[in-house]
User: Which sequence fits this backbone?
């Protein structure tokens, strides 16, 4: 049964799945937007929104918690650059935009996952 199970498995073992989502999250933080499949974008969105909510508190505990989940470069960019932009926003820090593109090998639907810009956040 699937009671109380959350998230997709992506046909991967736990450590591989965590590494996949961590990599997508880091790339989103560093670049601002990424192109991926719809299901991966939805799972990455959950992870990123939780991390931004933690970073918005702007205290030492939140910085340490983010450093546990992300590499130092991405953690610092999230904490010092991205999170202050969303100080007044209550949620919805990312956006999924569907595209007409399909992946060549399996025709998977591709989407763009991006952080909402500063002027849109206000």
Assistant:
């Amino acid at each position: 049964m699937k009671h109380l199970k959350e998230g997709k498995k992506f046909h991967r073992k736990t450590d591989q799945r965590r590494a996949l989502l961590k990599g997508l999250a880091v790339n989103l933080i560093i670049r601002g937007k990424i192109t991926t499949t719809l299901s991966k974008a939805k799972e990455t969105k959950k992870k990123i929104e939780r991390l931004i909510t933690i970073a918005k508190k702007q205290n030492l505990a939140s910085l340490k918690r983010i450093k546990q989940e992300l590499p130092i470069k991405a953690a610092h960019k999230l904490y010092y650059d991205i999170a202050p932009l969303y100080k007044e926003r209550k949620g919805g820090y990312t956006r999924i935009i569907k595209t007409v593109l399909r992946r060549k090998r399996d025709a998977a639907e591709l989407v763009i996952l991006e952080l909402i810009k500063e002027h849109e956040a206000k």
